[in-house]
Design a protein that fits this description.
Elements lengths: L19 H5 L4 H10 L1 H4 L9 E5 L6 H13 L3 E3 L14 H15 L3 E6 L1 H12 L4 E7 L13 H8 L7 H8 L6 E5 L19 E5 L12 H11 L22 H4 L2
Parallel strand pairs: 1-2, 1-3, 3-4, 4-5, 5-6
Amino acid sequence: MAAADGGETAGEPRLRPPSLFMMLAEARSIFELNSSLLFSPLLLRAPKGDGHPVLALPGFLASDLSMAPMRRYLKELGYDTYAWNMGRNLGGVASKRGALRDLLQRIHETTGRKVSVIGWSLGGIYARDLALQMPDLVRSVITLGSPFTSDVRATNATRLYEALSGEGINDNPEIQKAIAGDLPVPTTSIYSRTDGIVNWHTCHLNPSETAENIEVYLASHVGLGVNPAALWAVADRLAQAEGEFKQFDRSGPFAIAYAPRENAQS
């Protein structure tokens, strides 16, 4: 597997982006949205929130509208949800750092509480970077299909990202290496091996006592943020008490949708 800085490990090929077939299959995301609506009564039986603030960061080319279903769901469960309010996400991990720090600081000052940060795809990279920069303000990080480790060029959006953001994927190797490493806060990476945009290996973190991977079977990249099994996992992770962490219990109502822990972390 490629090294964390985007280079190649000796004797091993670079990771490849998902195939054209997998990318075209992303159209199934509409079924994931419809499923979450169908299962909404069940989803609302997830553990209730304690009112702490949750910041939702959209993926590349997406806006706050993409995270609206998740924010509504979490608000129903009792969380104080926040959008990023920066329009469409056109990328720029380095260039967005200052604005995101200011946003996190404002939410913390407004609420007086640590903030859980959820990021979908590129938004998850921002979330991990925020936790590294301002760990005292971040309660936990949850990423959804975020390519933050290994050969991060193994996506079907790399060239477009570089063109629109003005940043090369490997322009900031120190930042990239730090984001790929361990975080100082509880961390969950939710991903799917059937992701048609990013190679799932790039979403796989090093599991520890405060970090875990949750693999969702058959989920798409575009639909991961509205997938009912992913939504349940997000709600379950957020419901943990501040300063506490235990591994995700896959025996809940969507148990059939999750890979076993030993497979998800191998």
